[in-house]
Design goal:
By secondary structure, this protein is of the alpha+beta class. It has one domain. Helices cover about 55% and strands about 10% of the residues. The chain contains 15 helices and six strands. Strands 1, 2, 5 and 6 form a four-stranded antiparallel sheet that branches. Strands 3-4 form a two-stranded antiparallel ribbon. The radius of gyration is 37 Å and the shape is elongated. The termini are far apart.
């Protein structure tokens, strides 16, 4: 009897263990598979994010090398050198990168595939938003340009040029007011001293851009290059034919940004004093300021503006120079007495001072165009480029941005005649949908920008 009892008890213990193991396995196995599926889904989500990041970064790596080398600007040329720009090419490249970074073989979607546990694949991809360089009335271009020069910029120059720009309007107006008018009665040249005759000979009869230009420049050495205004980016913008992006863009618009943008233009656009200019125009900076079609007309306009400012500055200097004022007073007195008309003395004195200021201004311009510096005030000298900087500060932001982009587009068209700056992307937003081996979908929206 004892043996039978022990045998029955042993069987009971074995039965209890079997039931207990079944209960444990029945509880743990569903939990295991639940955790396994959760891990697979989470891994698939992480993998989808990684793939989206790699794909979008690969897309951003297709920036235009030529634009970077010429203008230090990162952007994707959506034409890829093949005709007109198109977002369709961007989407094609996006899907190609996705194909190379997701499962390509259906065997990878087996439950325990060693190659890819998640078995994730892409089912849909598109570009949902872009920012073009030309967006926000040129503000995107301005921001990219400012960031391009911030690290290299000599901040001490900021105050120097800012001080000049505050004086520019005052002296430009003063220079316009010193044109010889009917206040000075006609005097026979025979009655004038020889030195004054020489001075008058070197003074333009009419202070117009053409007269000043012909006095200072040799027309034969001036560039004959020109562009057609109807084919510029500015003209397309006026006609409403410029591509526009759909992404928001934050704008920082202050005197600092304006000055830095001017510095960018001076570093990447040529001017009269530049060596070996290679743009569509030789005098790109003069175009940005004046907006004429030809190099000659742009140079005329800029030279005339500088001439007026220099004349205003030189008149102020001469009027503050007691020695020169006394000399002018003596000459005017002698001439008026010789003509038996003492009433002419104050008019003659003023005319002599104006003539001296005009000659000094002509000499200043000749130095500037040779790449030399001239004195603004005692201890402060400025170059031709410094004068351009000051004029840029007085040019509207929109105008300088669009004209700067005109020159950039024209420069790029030297190697690609169909290039369009409003087809260049600096910011992109993508939408990609994935599916894992269990049919779960993941939607990833990703934005990348060269401005960050």
């Amino acid at each position: 009897m004892m043996k039978n009892t022990e045998s029955i008890n042993g069987g009971s213990c074995a039965g209890y263990i079997t039931v207990f193991a079944s209960l444990i396995l029945g509880t743990l196995l569903p939990l295991f598979f639940l955790l396994f599926q959760g891990a697979v889904r989470a891994s698939a989500f992480v993998e989808a994010n990684c793939i989206s990041d790699v794909v979008t970064e690969s897309l951003m790596a297709e920036y235009s090398v030529e634009m970077l080398e010429k203008y230090n600007i990162f952007s994707i040329d959506t034409s890829y050198g093949m005709g007109s720009p198109s977002l369709g090419r961007i989407n094609a490249h996006l899907n190609n990168y996705l194909f190379m970074n997701t499962s390509k073989d259906t065997s990878d979607r087996q439950l325990f595939s060693i190659y890819n546990l998640t078995g994730i694949r892409n089912t849909f991809a598109e570009t949902t938003g872009v920012t073009y360089i030309t967006d926000n009335d040129g503000e995107v271009f301005r921001d990219l340009a400012v960031k391009a020069v911030e690290d290299e910029f000599n901040i001490s120059l900021f105050k120097k040029i800012y001080d000049l720009s505050t004086l520019w309007g005052e002296y430009e107006g003063k220079g316009e007011e010193v044109k010889l008018s009917g206040e000075i009665k006609e005097i026979s040249s025979d009655a004038l001293p020889e030195g004054l005759k020489t001075l008058l000979k070197d003074t333009p009869d009419e202070k117009s851009p053409s007269a000043v230009f012909s006095l200072i420049c040799n027309v034969e050495t001036v560039s004959a290059k020109s562009i057609e205004s109807a084919g510029t980016l500015s003209a397309r913008k006026a006609a409403g034919q410029v591509n526009k992006g759909n992404l928001e863009h934050e704008v920082d618009a202050g005197i600092y940004e304006k000055f830095m943008f001017g510095e960018y233009l001076l570093r990447h656009m040529s001017n009269f004093t530049s060596k070996d200019p290679c743009g569509a125009l030789k005098y790109e900076m003069e175009y940005i300021i004046a907006g004429k079609e030809s190099d000659e007309d742009n140079l005329k306009s800029v030279i005339y503006r500088i001439f007026l400012v220099r004349e205003g500055i030189n008149i102020a200097k001469i009027e503050g120079d007691e020695k020169r004022c006394a000399e002018a007073d003596g000459i005017a007195t002698a001439i008026s007495l010789a003509l038996l008309n003492p009433e002419l003395q104050p008019f003659l004195k003023h005319g002599i001072l104006v003539l001296w200021a005009t000659k000094d201004s002509r000499d200043d311009l000749e130095k500037l165009l040779k790449g030399e510096e001239v004195e603004l005030f005692e201890g402060i000298t400025l170059s031709y480029e410094d004068h351009l900087r000051a004029m840029l500060l007085l040019t509207s932001k929109s105008r300088e941005a669009w004209r700067g982009m005109d020159m950039m587009e024209a420069g790029m068209r030297l190697s690609n005649p169909e290039f369009r700056l409003d087809g260049c992307i600096t910011d992109i937003n993508t939408r990609m949908i994935y599916e894992n081996r269990f049919g779960h979908e993941y939607e990833i929206n990703m934005r990348k920008s060269y401005e960050n």
